[in-house]
Design brief:
This is Serine/threonine-protein phosphatase. The chain is an alpha+beta fold. 32% of the residues lie in helices and 27% in strands. Strand 3 and strand 4 form a beta hairpin.
Length: 380
């Protein structure tokens, strides 16, 4: 009698990068009473889940959306079907659906969860080596500027024992220069939100210069002041002060909740706790690249355990479609209050959808970024 392999991981690592769903499906059909398997991936707007194995099939329905939103296994079909989140390091990719021919899915839940975890990790690793999965999640063609921006993003969510983090960009298929970046190392979480100057591919190129300059400094061990100054010098050297970049750099101490900030422009930070939403008061310094040899200073503020930190670009807080009051005056606060019980991954989508509704079908004048961080203050 054949012995079931301990893990599907070795088979996924040996497979071509574009055939991972088929390898996982074959493993499940070989070793379990499985009749059907589908892999769903979330589109760029995080609004629908699209099938990979059968691209002509319908998008994932309510059970798949519930699994994706809750990040919990969902049993359906009289316990004959299970849906499992495809998530790695907090980054939500999609959902794995397994339909059994006989038996109760709960009997195999531990093994199915392990397959989903291995598949999620493999899909993320393979993303740079095949276009298959990107073609699934793109429901229309990206502009060249948007192509550059999506290639530059770190991911759409990140999590650990001490924090939950998510970000979203709008419009997904035609963004310009707004951007976010993050990195976690040891007890420090660095977050950057950028308001790009201009539009089209030139705005995306400006952001690309800034983000890579800050990453270069950060990866060399530089603090956020040095990151801001290197990026400012790089932009000024390239554009001579004719283009600049409003940026908010944050470094969060995950053990104590102290936040060091370099406020170089228009992104706004807010703290939400127990129903109250309070703007973070920071003294703005010059945008990056406005002058040669610009120098920056840090400011500090404190997060309490369980606090939520939100950062929005000017495409959110200054949006004023059709002569309406700026979205940040009151509508933003209303939208943020509706997210109180939602995890960051859902909260950013709620705010973006409310922003779309605020525009009432008109095209936004600027792209928009929202970042949401929950600091949990748990130790590893």
């Amino acid at each position: 009698m054949s012995v079931r392999p301990a893990s599907v991981g070795s088979f996924l690592r040996a497979a071509p990068p574009d055939r991972l769903p088929e390898v996982a499906a074959q493993h499940l059909r070989t070793w379990f009473p499985v009749d059907n398997v589908e892999v769903f991936l979330s589109d760029l707007t995080m609004s629908a889940l699209w099938p990979v194995l059968d691209p002509e099939a319908a998008p994932g329905g309510s059970f798949a959306q519930r699994c994706f939103g809750s990040q919990q296994a969902v049993i359906s079909g009289g316990a004959g079907e299970v849906l499992l989140p495809l998530t790695t390091w907090g980054d939500r990719l999609g959902v794995l659906r397994i339909q059994l021919s006989v038996g109760d899915a709960r009997e195999h839940l531990t093994e199915f969860t392990a397959v989903a975890d291995e598949l999620a990790l493999a899909l993320r690793a393979a993303d740079k080596d095949t276009d298959r999965y990107r073609q699934v999640v793109r429901r229309q063609r990206l502009t060249m500027a948007a192509e550059l921006q999506w290639e530059l993003l770190p991911g759409r969510s990140l999590g650990g024992e001490r924090f939950r983090l998510a970000g979203q960009l709008e419009p997904a298929y035609a963004m310009y220069g707004d951007h976010y970046d993050w990195s976690v190392t040891d007890d420090r979480l660095t977050i950057t939100v950028l308001n790009g100057d201009g539009d089209g591919i030139e705005a995306a190129l400006l952001t690309t210069v800034a983000v890579n300059a800050m990453r270069n400094a950060r990866r060399s061990g530089a603090n956020i002041v040095e990151q801001a100054e290197l990026a400012s010098d790089a932009i000024y050297s390239r554009y001579g002060g004719n283009s600049h970049l409003a940026t908010l750099l944050l470094e969060i101490d995950l053990t104590g909740g102290t936040v060091e900030a370099v406020d170089a422009g228009s992104p706004k930070a807010l703290i939400a706790r127990e129903g109250d939403i309070v703007p973070v008061s920071l003294e703005q310094q010059l945008p990056l690249g406005m002058f040669g040899d610009s120098r920056y200073e840090t400011q500090k503020f404190q997060l309490d355990a369980g606090a939520r930190l939100l950062v929005v670009s000017d495409g959110v807080h200054e949006a004023a479609p059709g002569g309406k009051p700026p979205y940040g005056d009151s509508a933003l606060l209303s939208a943020l209050r509706r997210t109180r019980l939602q995890p960051p991954t859902e909260a950013v989508g709620t705010v973006i959808r409310a922003l779309r509704d605020y525009h009432e079908g008109t095209d936004p004048a600027d792209d928009a970024v929202i970042i949401c961080l929950d600091w949990l203050r748990r130790t590893a």
